[in-house]
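Escalation from tier 1.

The customer reports that the assembly of two entities below gives different structure tokens on two consecutive runs. Tier 1 could not reproduce it. I'm attaching the input and our single run for tier 2 to review.
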Amino acid sequence: MPLHCVVCVKQVPDTTQVRIDPETGSLVRSGIPSVINPFDLFAIEAALRARDGHGGSVTALSMGPPQAEEALRKTLGFGADRAVLLSDRAFAGADTLATTYALAAAIRRIDGEQPVDLVVCGKQSIDGDTGQVGPGIARRLAFSELTYVCAVDRISPEERHIRAWRQREDGRELLEAELPACVTVTEGCNAIRRAALPDLLAASRQPVEVWSVDDLDVEREDLGLKGSPTRVSKIFAPPARERGEMLTEPDKPLAAAVADLMDRLAARGLAFGSARG
Amino acid sequence: MKQPGNISPIDPRGPLDTSSPPDPGGRQDPQSPRDPNGAGGPRDPSSSRDSARNPGTVPSRFDAIVVGGGPAGLSAAYIMSGAGLNVACLERGDWSGSKNMMGGVIFSRPAGTVVPDFWKEAPLERHVTRREMWLATADSAIKASFETTDFAREPYNSFTVYRSRFDKWLAAQAAAQGAYMVTETLVEGLLWEGGRVIGVRTDRPQGDLEADVVLLAEGVNSFLTEKAGLGPGPEPQSLALAVKEVLALPREKIEDRFDLETGAGASVEIVGETTGRLPGTGFIYTNRDTISIGVGVLLNRLIESDAEAYTILEQFKQQPQVRRLIQGASVREYAAHLIPEGGYCKMPRLFGDGVLVAGDCAGMVNAINSEGANLAMLSGRMAAETIIECHREGCGFDGPSLKRYRDRLEKSLVLKDLKKYEGATPFLQKHQEIFNLYPELLAALAREFFTVDDLSKADKERLLMRLFRSQVPVREVLKMAYDAWRSLV
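Tier 1 run:
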């Protein structure tokens, strides 16, 4: 039974090249190349593998300025079947609340045209770092929500369920949920494929559908900056971390360094008995 | 309505399990994305999605493949797809222009024969209204310049550009004409059949692509041209190394310092102290709010001299007349690139059975007039015109048909100019005094001429003659002049 996946893709500035203006505290973005949010590459691959396993199709969805089309064209090159870009001034300045509102509305429309079984997102973006958009979409669409998925174990469109490993701080857990589901994936859950030449050739000529506000069933005041309760009060560069103090020295016996450490911990009331091992 | 959160931990060992989950990467080979053993069972690789994409929109065989999305390749792709041919253009960089370091000048008339009135749309920096040539020493400069308001009007004469932006734009134009533009894809080799080229092999999965004809526009590192048996590949004595910085400076400051109308630009070429006494030139181009400044030196001489290219550029920037122009500017970019300056005699064969070469890989650089991108665009256009003609006449793409490409180039300024300056690089290799002795000498003479002291004008003239003769034997000057006349005029 075929599976219809929607993969959410965000175009972000290549943060390895972003600097922070020390005077204004703002990000210097001019001239910085844009890339697909690296976490979304894992989402794309997960969606493509799900489709390749079951048949069906992958629809790539993004919201952003017109040049975000580049990110979607790349996604088509990896093998996605369709690409939709939400691009309208009314979407601009959105926080995660307004973003998930717009994306959920778009997925509802896509779902109306062809029922959606699975939404896949990266666990977070590298520029916003909130990790809220995937869960927000799940909640708004009332889809099952699986976050921090590090491996998809099994998808069964017939039985309408998905089983996946979820990364926790202290280990991994195997979870099962009903379809439709919204999954956010972690880095390393797969490796993005090297796109095949026929896919790239097809992608180079395939149109990216651009949807404006008028294409969605939405209330304008819930979109973009208007629909965003989040206010940025201040942007600043975090102070450079101080270098840790090194207690070991080339000629100093290790035992002396350990004793030194114990003394310091004791002075702060943090020592417990004698050093072990 | 389903509630979110209807998720249950089902692992018998409990919710926490630190053992490794099944590795999905181990079951699916990224090299074969349609691996039928992938999670969930077999799937016909050609089924659903290809049908979703209207099979037939991507030809299984192209009319032409263009290798390289630079000035030559993009011009060809633009014109061929505009004429209705199925064209695939393969570029190894992240995007067209991403590998291009050129921040210099493009000339509007030649470029206008590829995309008419391109200046109305293309990302350009400034229209150049003044060209300057300097002979420079460590502390002085003799300057010649030409300026006209005529160059500030359509169709203009030339523009400073960032080729990286211009090429990105040109690639979009070619795509709009219907060319299949593919980036991040390296062509590793050619496909042969019975001694003729029938396609290319890329580094992609399912990466072979066939076409009636392949146009190589791969740039200075011409490995495919070599593989096609058309030429020997690059050699140090026919290459120049250009190093360049982009310096940020406010618009008004640029216009003040270079004495320019709003939006107008200047290009400056400098011989002498700029290149650490090596054969080569320095250059300065004004962009909108940046300056491109750099030096190009013959690679073999650079290697022999043990000098570092960046040190030469640093010294160039410290020359007083240069320093004044760039003072207070901050470095935005640093780049280096090779330029094929071997000239006419080092050019490869320009065509073979099923294959053509254009642009840098064909050695089409006029070092004397600093024209490369210009010739690349023209040769790309002429390759395209030849292919379109052969396509329409159905006369095939063997050597005899493709010879028309060479005929076209010979009738045009491309091969005429390259032939004219055939001896230029050997001349510059031989007469290095042009880059050190003569600028010094001429500056010394000028200094003496303009210094007013207690000598009479007649005594001054005698002194200048003496000074001149003491530095260079007349015989040498005549010899140099004769060689220059033979190879440059």
